[in-house]
Recover the amino acids of this structure.
């Protein structure tokens, strides 16, 4: 292929962007040349009309999408910046299903957050022994995808790929670096609430701090080779890989 693929990413935070770029690197391998542009949180030249004060986190993603929808007269898929992309990734952690618009300081939005509670059927004390076939993560991921589709009035481009880690991107980081951890072998990692605590529980020399500096040092350049560990232990990671590759196959450069 002579041309370079343009991939746009709308994500919750700068560390998420670094992880997603590594995943893309793994999935595309040397099939294509590509560039990843972070539309949110950071704005690139093409998207310069965007308000850069959108903040980060899920509410930053929401504000970015609503702003772009407004710029394109309600048709997000017709946005000039979106149309020039070969592939668009929208990332939201599935724990956003528990948030409310008030938490995100957002108003005038259909009241579809928090999502109707999708609860683990296990008694509270056994929640950390969720079996590997538990489908609560999938149900929650589907719920948050539907919320995004509502934000955009279902006007999404064909080349959109959702990235919905359960319950948060920290689980995907943990699965990559610590595939032999007993907590992964005993239960479903995607059901662990606040997976950042798993990362924090590691000894200091192995720990990955959630900062751009630490991610640049420990994630960039090595994470892409560990992606198969994540695909094995996180069903949403496998789903993202398959959906990404499916769209990639339809891309024309
Ligand atoms: Zn579960």
């Amino acid at each position: 292929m002579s041309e370079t693929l343009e991939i746009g990413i709308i994500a919750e935070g700068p560390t998420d962007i670094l992880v997603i770029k590594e995943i893309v690197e793994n999935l595309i391998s040397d099939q294509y040349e590509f560039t990843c542009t972070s539309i949110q949180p950071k704005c690139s030249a093409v998207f310069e009309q965007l308000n850069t004060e959108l903040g980060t986190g899920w509410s930053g993603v929401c504000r970015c999408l609503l702003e772009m929808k407004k710029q394109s007269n309600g048709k997000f898929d017709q946005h000039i910046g979106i149309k020039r992309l070969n592939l668009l990734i929208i990332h939201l952690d599935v724990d956003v299903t528990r948030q409310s618009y008030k938490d995100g300081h957002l108003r005038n939005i259909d009241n579809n957050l928090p999502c109707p509670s999708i609860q683990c059927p296990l008694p509270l004390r056994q929640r950390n022994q969720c079996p590997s076939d538990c489908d609560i993560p999938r149900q929650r991921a589907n719920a948050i995808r539907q919320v995004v589709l509502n934000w955009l009035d279902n006007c999404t481009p064909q080349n959109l790929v959702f990235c919905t880690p359960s319950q948060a991107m920290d689980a995907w980081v943990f699965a990559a670096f610590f595939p032999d951890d007993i907590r992964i072998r005993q239960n479903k990692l995607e059901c662990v609430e606040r997976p950042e605590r798993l990362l924090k529980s590691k000894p200091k020399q192995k720990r990955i701090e959630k900062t751009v500096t630490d991610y640049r040092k420990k994630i960039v350049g090595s994470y892409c080779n560990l992606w198969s560990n994540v695909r094995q232990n996180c069903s949403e990671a496998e789903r993202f890989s398959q959906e990404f590759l499916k769209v990639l196959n339809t891309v024309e450069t």
